[in-house]
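User: Teach me something about this protein's shape.
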Amino acid sequence: MRINRLNQIEQYIIDQESSSLEELCRSFGISMSTVRRDIALLVDRGTIKKVYGGVTVSPSYDCKINNRKHRGSSQQNNPGQIIGRLAASLVQDGMSIFLDSGITTPGILSYLSGKQNITVITHNLIALNEAAKYPSLRIIALGGTYSSDASAFVGGSIPDELSKMSIDLVFLSASGVTLERGLTSTTYSLSAIKESAVQWNQKLILLADSTKFGRNALLTFCRFRDLSIIVTDRVLPQSYSDGCLLHGVRVLTPESTAFATQAFSTSLYKLCESST
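Assistant: First, the predicted structure itself:
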């Protein structure tokens, strides 16, 4: 019984990349003391690493995470590719875009190869490696100290560098999304970068699969109502659909028609032009 729960918790953390202890308690219906004992055993396995406020996948599993992403790139129903394809429809020639940390945001890059004069700004190592495959993309790498836990560069002058940039579209990732707390992250170093991107830009686009909604992580970096668009792989629960309607947040899902997607991307481009 316990070994089954351990395996389920391990797989949950690997799938989600990170989790708070409170979230594990809620998800598996167990006490905090039980969670702590289970996590200690998983840490001994070498798959999980404890971080402030929760747990994340061990650095030794970075390759596994990256391989999962690349294996999914050829699968039509892979959430990351669905989200990437929809997100790319918002990008017009001549735009600058910021790609946040995580394994979802780089999924947009393969769909940008046919566009012209696109500038990609990122601290995400996975995104940098992927973007390097496409000579048509202009790449600005934000430097800092490499974090193997996040597969991204953190700290240093990254928040300050972002404060000096006017970016057309900011593509954000999140560990959790709720109406009450907005977009949340598990670590201070990543949250500081996200906050800077949010503070200095208006076109904020969340790229998140359906598992992220209803989850809370430790740190809020963006209010729900400040989003411009949500791109996800499934229709949102009714409460989130209502929240989007209330705050004027647009939603792109596979159920969106090609006409609606194209019409909105065109209007967004005109809005970006008018604000420059």
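Now, about its shape. The longest helix spans residues 258-275. The chain is about 40% helix and 20% strand. If you'd like, I can walk through any region in more detail.
User: That's plenty for now, thanks!
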